[in-house]
Amino acid sequence: MQVMPAAICADKRRNYVSRASDNPVACGPEKPMPSRDPRFNTPAEMWVRFVFASRYVFFFASLVFSAFAVSEGSGHDAFKALVCLAAMLAGHQWLKKRGKLPECHRALEAMFRGEVRPDADGGLESLLQRRAALEEKRGQPGFDPWAVQALRREISDYVREHPESTGGLR
């Protein structure tokens, strides 16, 4: 009997026709996905950043096309300027509607000030504290062993990248 992930299992149950010759499909518990690595961005976060940055590109393109339209008296350039302005305003409204605009402005200001994200590098001590907190939950109903494994991997990566954090131990 083969064990299938739940998503495939649900599909198999829906399309499963019972025959004596068919192999039964056992739908057992699947491994939970490890927690997302905070060093990487989700596609949704990347899309928000792309729209935020594209607003500036569209704004400056609108200015350039406007300057060409005024200097050459071109209707095509004026139309391009209006399209770029509309795209910039659409991106602005999209971010504002989803509540991401203030967050993007804060991130941009922090980048120009040279600040590092607070969760980007908490240090070895904070990683070990997080691991200890997870280990205390071992044996309880909500315990996730995959989260502990992911954190151990994160600690290993941190020690490899920052050998000075171990005090010279290997």
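Second entry:
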Amino acid sequence: MAKKIEKTKDEGIAEYPYSMHFKVIDTIGVPHTYCITPKHLETGHVYVDEWTIKEAELECGAKCGVKGCDLSYEEHKTALLVLCFQDEDLPDDLYHEMLQAYLMEIKDKCEADGCVGFAFMKASEPHKGEFDNGNDN
């Protein structure tokens, strides 16, 4: 995957601003997570990482193990998973404006981290945490 986050995944995600309504909680593979197969292990490496996956594709003909997938490792991308909470009394149009503002706020970092977009997960309650990041979305 073409992910540029050089920290651990959790450290990279923790750097995104958040509020009680919106928070980046994870990354997801697009169109799906690259799947390792026994062919990837034919290179003889003990560990599988980005370099050994690419080597296995070139030297052994390894491919993503998802049925019907013909994409290379490089063609699999990463998106941010955003947890979203909408108060019952918050009008939809205002909520959508807040979401748009939040996404615009994190867009540059998302792109710098090599992510290609966003996926959303509805939350049943507001995010609880310290809201000292100056974000009131």
